[in-house]
Amino acid sequence: MQQVLVYADSLSWGMIPNTRDRLPFDERWPGVLENSLLRSGLRIRVMEDCLNGRRTIWEDPFKPGRNGREGLAQSIESNSPLSLVVLMIGTNDFQFCHPFTSAWSAAQGVASLINEIRKAPTESGMPMPRILIVSPPRIGSPKGAFLQKFRGAEGRDIGLSDAYSQIGSELGCDFFDANTVITSSVVDGVHLDADQHLKLGLALTEVVRAILI
Q1: Helices (H), the chain
Q2: Burial class, 188, CB count within 10 angstroms (exposed 0-12 / middle 13-18 / buried 19+)
Q3: Which residues touch 49 (CB under 8 Å, ≥6 apart)?
Q4: DSSP characters for 135-172?
Q5: Alpha-carbon distance 112 to 206, whole Å?
Q6: pTM (two decimals)
Q7: Contacts within 8 Å (CB) and 24+ apart, 100-106
Q8: What is the pLDDT along the chain (213 residues), one digit of tens a residue?
Q9: Is residue 151 within 8 Å of residue 94, measured between CB atoms?
Q10: At 5, is the secondary structure helix, strand, or coil?
């Protein structure tokens, strides 16, 4: 059985837009991906380490533990052996409270996470997992509880997919642009509606299958 770790934020955790509720595993994209890969004949387990508010390398001034670099190596170690790590992170880097909120800076944060994964203290003989960078969908028009946090973010994330693609090329990672198949919810401008989780999970099925076989 091959194991895949999704390391991400609330978009992958499955937060239902404009609520604090969570979609069931079978309805959020990691679950859709696992079930689709199982149907295709792969023996697979998709594990989630998805934390609401997680950034690439920044601290949240209001909630502790949201720096994505902190604890990443331990997550890799505890879930090993891994065939693949999927990184879909960076949306929260565009919140108002950070000193650098550009596509380039978010991509540099992802590069830092990749380096952390590759130096994680896994047991001797365990493989180095491949890494798939998934560029999250563009932030829409923030609304409701996310209006103040993400005010102006829809302009700051321009060029994110290109910046992530470049990092993937430079560091030898696979890349997928979620913007090619999904969009953020019109309800809050940030998270994913259930139908978008389904589309993303199905779209990633062939991408991940090609990496693993």
Answers
A1: 10-13, 29-39, 72-79, 103-118, 153-156, 160-171, 194-212
A2: buried
A3: 5, 6, 7, 8, 75, 79
A4: EPPPP----GGGTTTTTTHHHHTTTHHHHHHHHHHHHT
A5: 27
A6: 0.97
A7: 101/153, 101/156, 102/156, 103/156, 103/157, 103/158, 103/159, 103/160, 103/162, 103/163, 104/159, 104/163, 106/56, 106/157, 106/160, 106/163, 106/164
A8: 999 999 999 999 999 999 999 999 999 999 999 999 999 999 999 999 999 999 999 999 999 999 999 999 999 999 999 999 999 999 999 999 998 999 999 999 999 999 999 999 888 889 899 999 999 999 999 999 999 999 999 999 999 999 999 999 999 999 999 999 999 999 999 999 999 999 999 999 999 999 999
A9: no
A10: strand
Which amino acid does the sequence have at 141? Answer: S
Dig out the tokens for 65 from the structure: 């533990």
